[in-house]
Amino acid sequence: MAIVEVTIVPLGTGDTSLSSYVAKCHTVLKEEKDLKYMLTPMGTIIEGDLDKILDVIRRMHEVPFNEGAKRVSTQIKIDDRRDKETSMERKVKSVQSKLK
């Protein structure tokens, strides 16, 4: 199982607000029932099968273009651990346990 952070930014839209683009990207993400995700202030974390995640990111990347953007910058960070099962929650709990 992979944990992926993605940030999709339309460029040259003439507006500094991006929340409507983010919301439309999340509409695409919601269609994928096998993926778990979490919206953060700076991006979205997605957990699940890497092939499915990359497929949905590709579709999310197209959203700003469909909304009139002429350029889109997408950043992807992948944590693909194969030696044991992990999750978003486990990663956070691991750090929190070391803070005590």
Can you offer a commentary on this structure?
With about 100 residues, the protein is α+β, with helices and mostly antiparallel strands. Helices cover about 40% and strands about 30% of the residues. It has 3 helices and 4 strands. The chain has helices at about 20-30, 50-65, 90-100, and strands at about 1-10, 35-40, 45-50, 70-80. The chain has a 4-stranded antiparallel sheet. Strand 2 (about 35-40) and strand 3 form a beta hairpin. About 15% of the residues are buried.
Features:
four-stranded antiparallel sheet; Alpha-Beta Plaits; 3 helices; UPF0045_domain; globular; MTH1187/YkoF-like; 41% helix
Unreliable residue runs: none
- Rg over CA atoms: 15 Å
Global mean pLDDT: 94
- The CATH topology assignment is Alpha-Beta Plaits
Structural class: alpha+beta
Region (Disordered): 76-100
Domain Thiamine-binding protein: 4-96
InterPro entries: MTH1187/YkoF-like (IPR029756), Thiamine_BP (IPR002767), UPF0045_domain (IPR051614)
Family: Belongs to the UPF0045 family.
Spell out the blueprint of helices and strands:
Layout: E1 2-11, H1 19-30, E2 36-40, E3 43-48, H2 50-66, E4 71-80, H3 88-99
Antiparallel strand pairs: 1-3, 1-4, 2-3
